[in-house]
Amino acid sequence: MYSTTEIVKQSTAEGEMVINIGPQHPATHGVLHFVITLNGETIKKVEPHLGYIHRSIEKMCESLSYRQFVYVTSRMDYLSSHINNHACCLVTEQALQIELPARALVIRVLMDELTRLASHMLWWASMAMDIGALTPFFHAFREREMITDIFEDTCGTRLTMNYMVPGGVLMDLHPDFQKKVHAFINQFKTKLPEYDELVTDNIIFQNRTKGIGYLSRESAISYGCTGPVARASGVSCDVRKHFPYAIYDKLDFKEIIDTGCDSWARYKVRMQEMRQSLHIIEQLIDNIPEGDFQAKTKAVLKPPKGEFYSKVETARGELGVYIVSEGATTPYRIKFRSPGFSNLSALEHMAVGGKIGDFVAVMGSIDLVIPDIDR
Amino acid sequence: MWSLNEIVKSTDLKLNELFKPGMVFFIEAIIVALLAISLFAILGLVLVLMERKVSSFMQVRLGPNRVGPKGMFQTVADTIKLIVKEGMTPDNADRFLFHLAPFLVMIVAMILLAPLPFANGFQIWDINIGVLFVSAVSSVSVIGILMAGWSSNNKYSLLGAMRSGAQIVSYELSAGFSILAIVILSGSLTFSDIIQSQANGWWLFKGHIPALIAFVIFIIAATAETNRAPFDMAEAESELTAGFHTEYSGMKFALFFLAEYVNVFIVCAIGATLFLGGWMPLHFGDNTTFNHVMDYIPGIVWFFGKTFFLIFIMMWFRWTFPRLRIDQLLNLEWKYLLPISLINLLLVTVVAISGWHF
Amino acid sequence: MTKEELKITLTGLLPAATFEESGQWLNVKVSSSEWFNSAGLLRNQNTLQFDFLFCETCVDWKTRLTMVYFLRSTVLGHELVVKVDLDRDNPEIESVASIWRTAEFNEREVYEMFGVKFLNHPDLRLLILPDGWEGRNPLRKDFEDPVNMVKL
Lengths: 375, 358, 152
Description:
Order of helices and strands of chain B: HHHHEEHHHHHHHHHHH
Number of domains of chain B: 1
Radius of gyration of chain A: 21 Å
Oligomer: heterotrimer
Number of strands of chain A: 8
Shape of chain B: globular
Structural class of chain B: mainly alpha
Number of domains of chain A: 1
């Protein structure tokens, strides 16, 4: 990726040292590579090197039909695969103006929020692990397991769901769905305070995150940050609120905004978002309307000539799908605006001037998923 | 009732009957060395298993449960694996220092074993400056770590070693001061005297609040000195992959690993000896009936019981707390612990001079 | 601001621009030479305040390349799409990384995927592709990789 001579050439400054974080490193949660220039323990420069798992999904999608390319996107941000699929279905439905049955909409929102919860739990676990506490990982996985079980019942898979299709969802909910979600809600409600006791209230954790990775409101906007990262800098950017899709405009939930601008604020925003997601699920779980789970669509989808863009709020921020259609069965050009890519670009801004330990704390608070960045 | 003291004495007598004094010393030295090494091996096995079981308990999982009954031989299997593994040496490493470092760390841990009283009269060397000896020798282990970090030709290792150096040198101070508190109270540097002075109650209870403060500071400093979480800056796996032992593999890695656990055992043993009376059973002043009942439990059980209790507390720390940052770590020492322990030392002196302790 | 209001404001600001309203958003087409100044206006004009470049990409039309910029104002809440046509054989455009910092990474991606050269870009190097891929642009329509590409 980066030849040795170049790295040596860079580190000419007195007292500086270049180290590689990644591509194989416990803190990067995947194959992400940072070349970091250090002065002692202080970070002078951070340079991300991407592409270790770039699969060129955008190019692949150009030869896949409108029904097929949805499946590829599960592999983008694998922690919010339902939401990725949702974005892709939305763009096709928008192009073909497909009306969805009420049941499909509710199922989609339920799945989205469960995914968001699962993703935030994994983030919580891995952020605590980055900061050095290993135990929270297992506690979070205990609850996350319940969600993956729920997914497995209905979708047949646990990670890359491929459950949403243009026109609705692939199949109806499993009969146990409501029962299991209720069990999950009850369990999670007792465990969330435990999460807070274990990590949030810990003085070491607070000291490690407070005032670290400062990202001002202006920088957050300029760097194109979205999701909890931007919301912790005081930017109101929840797609669910500003550009409601599915039935989010009819639901009661709050957009969590914090003006702390640091890792601690990002942590708090996500913790609150978990509660909001839980609240959304509680509103819907007993009110799933009867009816079709899929609208009647043609076997071959041929959107008209034009350009279409749809966006959804994934667990990491705004995922945009931009499609250029030439009226054929496959998209002419497709572009995924992934939240992780923009959030990553702000990492250098946040990490410079801090210590190596801060870098890890900042990276944890951005919640990077590498396939989402590389696509 | 049998006691280790009797066994030691009768063995000594028997050997003296059979051999010349010089020879006796030689044979006894060999016996002691064998005992120390086997203690090391057993400690390594037990503590690693204990750590894994404690962590699995905290992390709502089962832990090792396949090798042997309840997974008891898991560490044996791990050791065999580590022995069989190839020991890699990185290119451009300082080979001499690279190979020397793990042994140095190990030897330091072994020397520290010398003045530890395991039971009444069961002690390798009751040196008259025992406490001083322990705090002096324990700081040598940092040289091994620095050596490992420097010679590995790896930036992670170097950073880890430098962190470790800064950390151990700093925390040595508070550890020393909190040990001094007990030295002042008991008026002796010898371990056996310190234990005898606790015959009517442990210093933790006798020394009022100053002793309690000293104990808490000692536990914190001991955790830091042994490079264990939340002070595992030298290893900090999410930052420096594995810190100073990144490049070590096979048995050399195992030596570092073992030395860590033995060090944990030793600092906890010292803590137990100084603050909790070592092998001295739980006594309450002149309450003779209670004291006699307690005396029925052999000293070695008390010693190991207390030590393992402290070890459990350190493991508890490790599996619940996040890691500190290096500057916070040093701030904690220089801005909080050191001033507190200085003032505390003053308090202890006042208590000791006025004879306020029980 | 609605589409129509936006169009009226923009006609005054960018006389050379052409508009297209068929899609979801107002599409503005500017020439590559004007783009940098227009971008500054869009960003700083009080009535527009497009401070958020939420997506930046390129489309290969086989005869030309089109840079597509998606802008949103976080203050005023309106959105706009700006398109800039480029010569396919020698695509060059002024970088907007100094206006929107997010453009730095997006432009590096477009640079390696489409071969568009961004003038005055702070650090125009390959971001995703490994060394040695300069000049081969995978997302162009005529890109062929007989080893790794599977035709369906």
